[in-house]
């Protein structure tokens, strides 16, 4: 008897598998490729502009900035950025705790909504540059080795508005049926807030914190300009400006962008895990 050959798989199966794999890979890598392409185009445009349009000015080339970064070394950046990051973290915590507390208070006492909203708007509209000297006069210079109170205060003010608005929007997005169910079982506004509204508001709160993280870092830097500190990103930038050291100034600015981006990314990753849980969907 002739030997029977195994059945051949249809060619369309292989075509479908290849198409599915390529589509999945492209979906995962499309964002990274687009970001890398945009970053490469930005650096290339900066390099060309520094060598042509801004030739002979204080605009350095990317290679000059990288060389100065390596020359300054890790010790210089660690000594200055540790101080500013600590100030930003303190202000981030203080400002967000007060913002979340006031947003929760609005749900418990709705009559306070107008007052809380006006405070948030004032904190957003007030000129940071104008209020910095006032804060410095009121708070005073920091003690030796202590963070600048002015920088911490500006970091807290910088995050207040975003978190208040995000928390209020998130609290109000709670499912009406779930709130009624808690009310039927005898729960008051506090039970509704802790059992339903807080969980449903987590995506909006994390989105607000994601924006607040870079804002806190920027507020701390602005507070250091007249915050009476000897070390920090603000004093380092002032020193580079006074010495007309453009390579160092650009290097500090790039590291500032990196630190702010890390803070933004941390809450973005956290939001990807928390959002499916808060909405009851699979991750």
Explain what the structure shows.
The chain has 283 residues and is mostly helical. It has one domain (62-279): MetI-like fold, CATH 1.10.3720. The protein has 9 helices and no strands. The protein has helices at residues 11-51, 62-108, 113-125, 128-139, 149-172, 176-184, 189-224, 233-242, 246-279. Helix 2 (62-108) packs across helix 5 (149-172), helix 2 (62-108) packs parallel to helix 9 and helix 6 (176-184) packs across helix 7. The chain is globular. The protein starts with 10 loop residues before the first helix and ends with a helix.
| Overall strand count | 0
Shape call: globular
The tally of helices reads 9
Largest sheet: none
Within the CATH hierarchy, at the fold level, what is the topology?
Answer: MetI-like fold
CATH architecture: Orthogonal Bundle
Helix content: over 70%
How many structural domains in the coordinates? 1
> CATH H-level name... which superfamily?
MetI-like
CATH class: Mainly Alpha
Runs with pLDDT <50, length 5+? none
Order of helices and strands: HHHHHHHHH
Mean pLDDT rating? 82
User: In whole angstroms, how far apart are the ends?
Assistant: 55 Å
Structural class computed from helices and strand pairing: mainly alpha
Quaternary form: single chain
- Rg, Cα atoms, Å: 26 Å
Q: What portion of residues belong to β-strands?
A: under 5%
């Amino acid at each position: 008897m002739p030997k029977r050959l195994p059945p051949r798989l249809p060619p369309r199966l292989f075509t479908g598998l290849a198409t599915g794999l390529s589509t999945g890979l492209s979906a995962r890598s499309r964002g990274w490729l687009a970001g890398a392409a945009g970053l490469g185009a930005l650096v290339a445009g900066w390099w060309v502009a520094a060598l042509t349009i801004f030739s002979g000015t204080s605009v350095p080339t990317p290679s000059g900035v990288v060389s100065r970064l390596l020359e300054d070394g890790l010790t210089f950046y660690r000594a200055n950025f540790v101080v500013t990051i600590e100030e930003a973290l303190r202000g981030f915590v203080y400002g967000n705790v007060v913002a979340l507390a006031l947003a929760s208070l609005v749900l418990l006492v709705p009559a306070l909504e107008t007052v809380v909203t006006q405070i948030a708007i004032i904190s957003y509209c007030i000129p940071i540059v104008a209020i910095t000297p006032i804060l410095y006069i009121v708070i005073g210079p920091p003690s030796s080795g202590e963070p600048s109170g002015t920088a911490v205060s500006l970091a807290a003010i910088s995050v207040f508005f975003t978190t208040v608005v995000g928390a209020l929007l998130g609290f109000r997005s709670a499912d009406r049926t779930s709130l009624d169910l808690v009310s039927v079982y005898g729960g008051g506004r506090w039970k509704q807030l802790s059992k339903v509204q807080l969980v449903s508001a987590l995506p909006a709160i994390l989105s607000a914190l994601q924006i607040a993280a870079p804002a806190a870092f920027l507020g701390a830097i602005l507070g250091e300009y007249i915050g009476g500190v000897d070390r920090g990103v603000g004093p380092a930038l002032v020193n580079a400006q006074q010495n007309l050291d453009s390579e160092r100034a650009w290097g500090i600015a790039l590291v500032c962008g990196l630190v702010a981006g890390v803070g933004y990314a941390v809450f973005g990753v956290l939001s990807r895990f928390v959002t499916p849980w808060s909405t009851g969907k699979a991750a």
